[in-house]
Amino acid sequence: MLNAVVIIFSAILGATLIWAILELPVSNHIHLSEQVLIQLDASGVRHPTTAVLLNFRGFDTLLEVMVLLLALLGVLDQTKKCRTNNLSINILLTQPYLQVLLWSARVLVPMMILVAGYLLGVGEYQPGGAFQAAAVLAAAGVLLNLSGLLRSWREPSWRLRVGFISGLLLFLLIAAITLFLSPGVLLQYPITLAGMFILIIEVGLTLSLGLILAGFFLLLSDEVNNMEADE
After folding, report:
1. How many whole angstroms separate alpha carbon 157 and alpha carbon 4?
2. First vs last C-alpha separation in the chain
3. What is the DSSP letter of 29?
4. What are phi and psi of 9, to 5 degrees?
5. Dihedral (C-alpha) 109, 113, 118, 121: value to the nearest 10 degrees?
6. Cβ atoms within 10 Å, residue 185
7. What sign for the dihedral angle of Cα 131, 133, 139, 140?
8. 3-state class of 90 per DSSP?
9. What is the pTM of this model?
10. What digits encode the pLDDT tens for the residues 83-128?
11. If 0-12 CB within 10 Å is exposed, 13-18 middle and 19+ buried, where does residue 134 land?
């Protein structure tokens, strides 16, 4: 019964979103790119995508981060319910395959960290930024786990939990500061501080989103192993 309700609600929500998109006036988004470029000097960055995500539509990005965090909390809740026993096994790998993974992790992970730092840094003036950098960090975590150098997160420590929410908390702090500087206006940065605020948000989101994205794999990997063992 519950599944049917969820399916019906999701279908109605999807249809409503499609209808809302189709009803948008075409003229409203023909010149959006031009408007972004006109306001780019006041955004604090030099790339239009970063300007839109973290300045002009910063509230949308804040909500996206909340959605990811809520999804991770849902994964944590479900994995706790599934752990009716403490069965935990490691994937048995053949020696050559394991050696390849170990070599790949030791060589590639430091490079991936450098790439993540590069993507974070260049996001101001070319494609890149926090989300891309976080995805690379998450991939590094998955590679470390597959190679056996990083254990799965059966019960995340308090440090990890702080890491999960640190980016969102930093984002909310900047939002509160903007409300203080411009009462009644959320996430509207002063021109002189916009670049610094965006950089602070991006650094926090890179670390936090990297942990969250990696967490979807590292929290569920033990459950997959358990299901394979049961079979």
Report:
1. 36
2. 28
3. G
4. -60, -45
5. 170
6. 10
7. negative
8. coil
9. 0.78
10. 544 434 344 455 666 777 888 889 999 999 999 999 999 988 888 8
11. buried
